[in-house]
Amino acid sequence: MRAKTEKSGNIEHPTSNTEHRMNSRNKGKVGEREFASLLREHGYDARRGQQFAGGADSPDVVSDALAWLHFEIKRVQNLNLADACAQAEGDAGGKPWVVAHRRNHAPWLITMRAEFFFELIREFQPQKNAKNTEDGMNEGMENIQHSTFNAQRRMGGSRDRTDVMNGTNNL
Q1: Whole-model pTM?
Q2: Count of domains in the chain?
Q3: For residue 43, which of 29, 71, 63 has the smallest C-alpha distance?
Q4: Is 36 exposed, middle or buried (0-12, 13-18, 19+ CB in 10 A)?
Q5: Largest CA distance in the chain
Q6: pLDDT one-digit tens code per residue, 17-31
Q7: Final residue before a domain boundary, out of 79, 94, 112
Q8: Does 102 share its domain with 122?
Q9: Judging by DSSP bridges, how do beta strands 61-62 and 47-48 pair with one another?
Q10: Are 62 and 73 in contact (CB under 8 A)?
Q11: Residues 108 and 24 in one domain
Q12: Which domain holds residue 96?
């Protein structure tokens, strides 16, 4: 049996709240799979998490290489960003969190606390006295790789420094 719909032009709109919630839930699942796929495209193992009731033990996307982060994924047209950030912080269990979100036909965006953003750029920027040359960029990339290695080591990752320096994601 089909849910009642209203016609507006040639488009049928669901009139049932249950149908709307199901479409939203399915769109959320699709978004979580899309973002996990995006992480894999960039070299990180990732999959959609097991959804129970929210919390640190059931993130939207799971990645062993990025286990030190909590991912909250939102795939909606009209996002209440403050609510999404509050949900991410509440579910993160003390870990740094990011809200990955996108609208239809738009790129993925990442939202995080400003303090976390400044930690990242402080950690990853090339040395202040390095010239803005290829050497300065190489030094900055080495800082990123070293920091990635340290973060993964703190989280119990099994990669060694050679893997990080070579840019491989062998776990």
Answers
A1: 0.61
A2: 2
A3: 63
A4: buried
A5: 69
A6: 555 555 767 778 899
A7: 112
A8: no
A9: antiparallel
A10: no
A11: yes
A12: 20-112
| 105 and 168 assigned to the same domain | no
Query: Do residues 141 and 125 lie in contact, with contact meaning Cβ atoms separated by under 8 Å?
Result: no
> DSSP letters of the chain?
-PPPEEEETTEEEE--HHHHHHHHHHHHHHHHHHHHHHHHHTT---EEPP-SS-STTS-SEE-STTTTSEEEEE--SS--HHHHHHHHHHHSTTS-EEEEE--TTS--EEE--HHHHHHHHHHHSPPTTS-SSHHHHHHHHHHHHHHHHHHHHHTT----HHHHHHT----
Q: Are residues 102 and 27 in the same domain?
A: yes
> Which phi and psi (to 5°) does residue 83 adopt?
-65, -40
Looking at 64-73, 88-97, 139-148, 149-158, which range is the least confident one?
149-158
Taking only the tens place, the pLDDT of each residue in 152-171 is 444 444 444 444 444 444 43
